[in-house]
Design brief:
mainly alpha
C-alpha cells in the first residue's frame, strides 16, 4: 500500500487508494470464514494487515489520531502479537470487526472522492 496518502484532493488518485482496501476486505472475510484452517502465523499476519489497512485509510482521509484517545486499530496489532492466546471465535470476531472498520473507511474515501469530483466539475 505504498500509495500517496495524506488527504490528497486529486480525484484521479482516489481510485488507486480504494483498490488495495477492496482486496484486504475480501481477504479478511475469506479468512474469518475459514479461521479454523489458519495457523497462528497467518492469523497474526492478517491482523497486522488489518491494522495497517485501517491506518492507511485514515492517512488517505487525513485523519489525525490523538494519542490520548483509545485507538481500536491498536487492538488488532496487540492481538496479532499474542494470537495464540485467542480462541478461533475471538480471531474470527476481530477479523470481522476489522473488515467493518475498513469497509466504513473505504466508503468515506469514496464519498469524499465523489464530492471532490462534483466540486471540480461544477461550472
Amino acid at each position: 500500500m505504498d500509495i500517496e496518502a495524506g488527504g490528497n484532493s486529486d480525484p484521479e488518485r482516489w481510485d488507486l487508494k480504494v483498490e488495495p482496501l477492496d482486496n484486504l476486505i475480501a481477504d479478511l472475510i475469506r479468512a474469518a470464514n475459514g479461521v479454523l484452517g489458519l495457523g497462528e502465523f497467518e492469523r497474526a499476519r492478517l491482523l497486522d494487515r488489518a491494522y495497517r489497512g485501517i491506518r492507511y485509510a485514515r492517512e488517505v482521509l487525513g485523519v489525525q489520531q490523538d494519542s490520548l484517545d483509545r485507538d481500536s486499530a491498536i487492538d488488532f496489532l496487540t492481538m496479532s502479537r499474542s494470537v495464540q492466546m485467542f480462541s478461533d471465535n475471538e480471531i474470527k470476531a476481530a477479523l470481522l470487526e476489522a473488515t467493518g472498520m475498513i469497509r466504513d473507511l473505504r466508503m468515506t474515501i469514496e464519498a469524499r472522492a465523489e464530492a471532490i469530483l462534483r466540486e471540480a466539475l461544477r461550472p
